[in-house]
Amino acid sequence: MSGVITVGVDGSEHGSAAADWAAAEAVRRGMELRLVHAWAQQPLDLPVTVDTEAQQRWAGNLLRETRARVTGRHPELPVTARLLPSDPVPALVAESAEAGMLVLGSRGHGTLVGYLIGSIALHVLRQAKGPVVLVRSPEQVQEEAGEAGEVLAGVGEEPDGVLGFAFEAAAARGAELRAVRAWSLPPVVDWGPGSMRLADETGGLAALEQKRLADALEPWRARHPQVEVAEQVEMGSAAQVLLSSCGSAALMVVGRHASGPHGLPRIGHVAHAVLHHAPCPVAVVPHP
């Protein structure tokens, strides 16, 4: 992982929360913090004139004020700031390829509606080259600062990226890692003789899923022996199982495929569900 955590700031309370979370995470991991703000100059053919010099001054002031705030709280943290003269989505996607992680804020619309993702964050998530953490509100940062909590990892069929990120996050916090694997009964047409024999040898479907989780965890436990791991195997949809298990989580880590049908970028239904409804920051890690 790169030694830099990059955070996008935009002047909103969600962007401010993201900067505070990223700064604390950079201190925990011994990494550098990079603050970025992306903006594009107005096309000449637009009917409404925008004062680009005023916009640039505002963006520069925003970066300076944010830097002053985070260095005031973490004097030992190395912080740089960059103004990116580009549209936010491609600029942040490019940043995600260089940084160890990209941190963004996202809009919240109350507990009844749940956690709704801003359009820029959604587009960046679909195309990001590395892990992206979405932070919902200042309350999430305050709650995590108050107690360690646990790191919750959703372990699917391609677990290495998720588990690598989750183990590092747990080690940095001195927190327990809860590795969650959800499963459901396979369709009859997918249940061949080889699968039936393997299930019989391991003591049934639930035991088979438990073994798959243990096998996925084994190399990461060897790399991070100091991290305590709780294993959870539960029948049900992955999104429902993860959301029902995240009450004490300080961070949830899930994966996403690099592309969906026809090669188009996507987030995936599990990541999409937890991003909308999880009460804690969520890290989305693209599968290798």
Automatic annotation (TrEMBL):
It holds the Pfam family Usp. Residues 3-136, 157-286 form the UspA domain. Belongs to the universal stress protein A family. This is Universal stress protein UspA. It comes from Streptosporangium nondiastaticum. The lineage of its organism: Bacteria, Bacillati, Actinomycetota, Actinomycetes, Streptosporangiales.
